[in-house]
Amino acid sequence: MNAPTVILSTNQTHRLHHAFFIPVGEIKATLLIVHGMSEHGGRYAKFAQFLADNGILVATYDQLGHGQTAKDESELGFFDEKHPVQTLCKDVIVVANALKNQANLLTKNQPNTKIPHFIMGHSMGSFIVRTVLVHHATSFDGAILMGTGNSFGTLNTLSMGYLAVQNKLNPKKKNLLLASVVNHHLLGQITYPISHSPFAWLSENLQNIQTFENDSLCGFVFTNNGFFTLNQFIKKATSAHWYAHLPNDFGVLLVSGKDDPVGNMGQDIVDLQENLINIGKNCTVRLYPNMRHEPLHETDNQRVYQDIIHWLNVNMKIC
Predict the structure, then answer these.
(1) Over the stretch 241-277, which tens digit does the pLDDT of each residue have?
(2) What is the pTM of this model?
(3) Does position 317 have pLDDT exceeding 80, yes or no?
(4) How do strand 56-61 and strand 18-21 relate by DSSP bridges?
(5) 18-318 is classed in which CATH architecture?
(6) How confident is the model at residue 113 (pLDDT cuts 50, 70, 90)?
(7) According to the model, what pLDDT value does residue 158 have?
(8) Quick one: which of 28, 44, 63, 132 is 20 to 30 A from 219 by CA?
(9) What is the 3-state secondary structure (H, E, C) of the chain?
(10) 44 with 63: CB under 8 angstroms?
(11) Residues 193, 187: contact at Cβ < 8 Å?
């Protein structure tokens, strides 16, 4: 693992903290991982190393308002005051290009080798990736969407106008009320919470919940700007527009816990696959019983690891 280059955000003020996970032998493909809300790229290190051990060059990074990209605690949960959606989308392409450059450097002794490029987004990251693919699908050979959803729900609809006002009045203020409402809404769909944690909806794995809570760079409250931006992404990503122009041979893998409230307990994932297949797209689903929002952190995560590397290997051959 290393991060030999400086990657500057398109806001021109933040360095995007990142890491490359480099295979020892032949590089078969690349994967860019776009993390979720109130977490950071470091949570994907074990998974990224597994992929690197299987020939995949991986990049993780901390988005604006997250992890070590945030300059201090006050920036956590705040994206960009002027153009947050555009900035976050452009940052995805900036990091993707840095990953491709790294692949080119490392494969200069692999003559006549085409390196397929894949992207993965989890939760908030999945909605960002879907928005990016509207205009940049040709930059990648396939996408993995994990912990995603397929509807702009009542809570999102009701909060949009309120958040638009709050984002103008006080964009950097932490919105404790909405954070509480969101967690309560997600927890309300879980039949058997395994702890009293407000983050019990994340996982069936109690240790994962405890680790998340003990991480000072996880679980922070979003600002008005953060929630407003997130809602914009969800609205864009749950419209049919995001996949209408995907190439038919563009592979999509949907990965979700069957008990993930973000995916409407699996139903959104089934619906999304049906939407994609109905217009001739190449879509595969892996829906895991007894898993919640974070399949990569469940006790049986090796099953998820193996399914993802299998999908990558199959789709490399198609590219």
Answers:
(1) 899 889 989 999 999 999 999 999 999 999 999 999 9
(2) 0.96
(3) no
(4) antiparallel
(5) 3-Layer(aba) Sandwich (3.40)
(6) confident
(7) 78
(8) 132
(9) CECCCCCECCCCCCECCEEEECCCCCCCEEEEEECCCCCCHHHHHHHHHHHHHCCEEEEEECCCCCHHHCCCHHHCCCCCCCCHHHHHHHHHHHHHHHHHHHHHHHCCCCCCCCCCEEEEEECHHHHHHHHHHHHHHHHCCEEEEECCCCCCCHHHHHHHHHHHHHHHHCCCCECHHHHHHHHHHHHCCCCCCCCCCCCHHHCCCHHHHHHHHHCCCCCCCCEHHHHHHHHHHHHHHCCCHHHHCCCCCCEEEEEEECCCHHHCCCHHHHHHHHHHHHCCCEEEEEEECCCCCCHHHCCCHHHHHHHHHHHHHHHHHHC
(10) no
(11) yes
pLDDT at 3: 58
What is the per-residue pLDDT for 5?
76
**Six-digit token string for 98:** 């840095």
CB burial of residue 173 (10 Å; 0-12, 13-18, 19+): middle
- C-alpha gyration radius of the chain: 18
With vertex at residue 289, the alpha carbon angle to CA 272 and CA 46, rounded to the nearest 5 degrees, is 90
CA dist., res. 233 & res. 77, Å (int):
15
pLDDT band at 109 (very low <50, low <70, confident <90, very high): confident
CA 265 from centre of chain:
18
Residue 91 in tokens? 């940052």
Cα–Cα separations (whole angstroms), residue 252 to 141, 177, 205, 284, 299: 9, 35, 27, 6, 25
- Each domain of the chain, given as residue ranges in start order, spans 18-318
- φ/ψ of residue 234, rounded to 5: -60, -40
pLDDT at 4: 59
Can you tell me the distance from the alpha carbon of 185 to that of 261, in angstroms, rounded to the nearest whole number? 9
Residues 6+ apart with CB under 8 A from 168: none
Q: Label residue 196 by pLDDT band (50, 70, 90).
A: confident
